[in-house]
Every structure is written in structure tokens, then in C-alpha cells.
Amino acid sequence: MNIVVASSEVVPFAKTGGLADVCGALPQQLSSLGHQVSVFLPGYRSVVYGDFDLYEIGVTVEIPLGNKVVEGKLLRTTLPESAVQVYVVAQDEYFDREALYGEKGNDYSDNCERFVFFSRSVLEAVRKLDLKPDIIHANDWQTGLIPALLKTEYSSNPLYENIASLITIHNLAYQGVFPADQMSLTGLDWKHFNQAEMEYYNQLNLLKTGIVFADAINTVSPTYAKEIQTAEQGCGLEGVLVERSDCLSGILNGIDTAVWNPETDTLIPANFSADNWPQGKAACKQHLQKLFGLEEDANKPLIGIVGRLASQKGWSMILQVMKQWLDQRDVQWVVLGTGDPDYHTILTGLYQTHPHKLGLRLGFSNELAHQIEAGSDMFLMPSQYEPCGLNQMYSMAYGTVPIVRKTGGLADTIIDADDSHEGGVSNELGNELANGFVFEDFATPSLETAISRAVDVYCHNKEKWRALVAAGMRRDWSWAASASEYQQLYTQTVAKKRSR
Ligand code: ADP
Questions:
Q1: Same domain membership, residue 117 and residue 176
Q2: pTM of the shown model
């Protein structure tokens, strides 16, 4: 099959979250399954002027935007060690900026224009490069216009009429909502600005647009696919999602095992495997304790957290537990993250009063993320919602036991230590062994109980702890299974499109 993936983030070129990991790893897997895959990405400063080998191919696109025409230039590269072609859409006025979406907590005011430009560029490039895709896989609101363009403006063009579209929702909370007047930037007829299509309470909503017009919709875990059809987690789009539920499915993300593998990882101080982890993991823990100025004691439970400092991730609860525990409990914490300035302030305060119990790095560091996954005993993810979550899978691959709230992909990947019984228990993904600690209520006491249970097993029941570690490390978290599910979804979607 011939597949085009359009995304605003792709590892290793540009990343702010899990979307980038998915769009870097999935295309490689699909390619190794024998498909021809091309990936499109905006030409951010870090991409065009970074350390990547980009080649000029002499192809430009001319995109109508309102009453002007904006030119973009295509540059080509490949995903590392693969045959996957990556096309970078360079347009310095839009993308030669410090960040991807905004600075100092404010979105760029022309984000609608930037991503309408990118979405239209992908479709124009498909023609200019003669790619002839069977399907275009859009991701999140930034490319939500692509399915709509295929169903409207491009639908009677023989080059496009058979191209199916899939949109993947990586996080429903980010919808690309803009003032109504920006509808004119999309170039689509105002007749589509209605509640059943592109309008959301008198504003333009680009994710809704993608959901309404795509031939298929998926999200990144089976549980999240169900949750987003409820008022509680539907972020206002539950109605549209229920309406399209016959085309909506959930496919769990995998992890890139070329990058996240404790046996080969060059960013961690010692390598280890599922068959022989205690020594290597202990060396990683000691290194982490030293690096963050914590007491170098192999037996002290060490809880790691890596991620965006956003309320979604349960920070209000984490901080309450941390405040108490830093005073009262002999437990170490290492936090790597960046985000909400209020959380920065509170964490900095806690660090200043407890520098030997709390290791803190407010920023983004891939190297430290690997070292924390490898060196921690436990990894905390008490998310309010979690479409899939990658960190809990990285943790398990590195023998670090996750403590999570039962939501989205966390519910699909983690089985509580007390839920397991002979032969394993069943969840969405079949029979599995216990591999972590799970709590249900989004409430501080529930989180605290879960952490207490984990610390208790860690300190007093080594055998059970080793079983939890082993269950996490032995399970295959790679993209192989997910990629074949995507392959199936593409095949079905293309067949359905052609049968119309
Ligand atoms: P989300 O996409 O909601 O941010 P995920 O768990 O799906 O959450 O993916 C987050 C990804 O971003 C992981 O690969 C994680 O390691 C990485 N990450 C998040 N914050 C940081 C940070 N401060 N430093 C390094 N990596 C980070």
C-alpha cells in the first residue's frame, strides 16, 4: 500500500509530545511491512536549520490563503536508518521560529494560517511528487483540514478521488479552535461552517473538521476510544464522535525499541536486560542519585516522573502527596518536566527545602528522560486522562514499575499488583500478568494509597517486586503489533472508500 502520513511532529525532527514518537516510529514499521510510506512535516527552525541532512528537490507548492498565495519549498530527507521518505515543507515566515506552536505560554496568533498552509501543502505535494497514495493519515487538529479538502475541493479531481483518509486523535483536548473569520483561510465554502461540519459554538474547529470528514477515525488506545464518546471525556466533541462511532477505533501506540531498549541504550550508564537486570539497574539508580544530589542508597525507593507539567498529568495531586512525603517518608523523587509556570514555582520551592530527597530538572532533556526511566524504581503517572501514554511503557521496558490512574492507555497497559492471579487476568488486550499499581479515583488519597502500596511491596516483598519488574520487561511493547493493526485499518478504510 502507498501511505502518506502528515504530522506537525515527527521524531527525531520535532517533538513536544507523544504525537512525535508515533509519527517517527509507525512509518518505519509500516515500511518494514512492505508499504511505501512518505511522511510530511513542517520545516521548523530546528528541522531546516538543525543537524539533519535535507536535500533540495526543486519542488515548490503555491498555496492560496485568503486573498494571497504563499509559496513553500519541499526538502527531502529520510527517517533514520530507514527507507521512509520525509518531506519537509519549508516556509520560513511560518516555521522559522523558536518553537512549534507558541512561546511563553501563548500560542502563535497565526496558528490557523500556518497549519492550513501545511495541510494544503501536503495535498499539493502529493500531486507534484506524483505520490499516488491509497490513504492519507492525518494526525490531530494541525492536519484536520486534509480529510475535509479531500471530501470537498479535491473530490472531483481524478488524482484524489480515490484517496482515503484517516485521522488519528492523539489528544482530544487540543482541537485547533479559531475565531469564525479564519474560516476564510481554509478556502472552503462557508456553507461548511455549520454545527454538523466545521463550526463549534460559532468558532472554527479543525479537529472536529477532521473527525467529520475523515473516512476513518482512530485514537491511541481502545479505552480512550470509548472514553471520548462520553460527556466526561469528550471535550465537547462527544456528540460528533458518537455519531461517527462506526468508523472510530482505538489502537494502542507502541514504543520505538531501537531507541528505548535498556540492552542497547547508549544514554544510560549501564545496560541490562529482562534476563539480567538487577546489577545494571542498580548502577543506573546510583548514577541517577548522584546526578541529582540524592543520597546514594540502593534501598531507598526512588520515584521518577517525566512529562509535561500540565494539570492533565495529575500535578495537583502529585504535589500534595510530595509535600507531605518529603517531610515524612524516606522516599526519593526525581522530576523532569516543563510546562505550567505555577508548577515550576511550587516544585522549585519543594526542591529548595528538600534538595537531598527531590531531584528536579525543569526543562526538556531526552538524555535525562532515558536515565530517569532506567534509574528509578517506580514511575508515577496519575493522569486525569491519558490517550495512550508512552512513559509507562518505557518504564516497564526499563524495569521501572508504573503507578498509574486507571484511564485511557494506562488502563489498557497496566494491571494492578493485587489484580493478578494464577494464569493472569483479562483486560482489553487479553490475558496479562500484574505489572504495576493502579488506582481509580482522581483524588489525592487514592493516589497516596497506590504509592504507599508500591513502596510497601518494594521494601517488604522483593519476590513480588521482581515479578512485577519481570512482567513489564518481558512483554513486547514494540510497534510490531500496533503497526499490523494500522495496516488492517488502512486496508479496511481504502476498501470502503473504493466500494462507494
Ligand atoms: P504526552 O504526549 O501527553 O506529553 P506521552 O507519555 O504520550 O505524553 O509522551 C510524552 C513523551 O514526551 C515521552 O516520550 C516523554 O519521555 C517525553 N517528554 C515529556 N516531557 C519531557 C521532558 N521534559 N524531557 C524529556 N522528554 C520529555
A1: yes
A2: 0.92
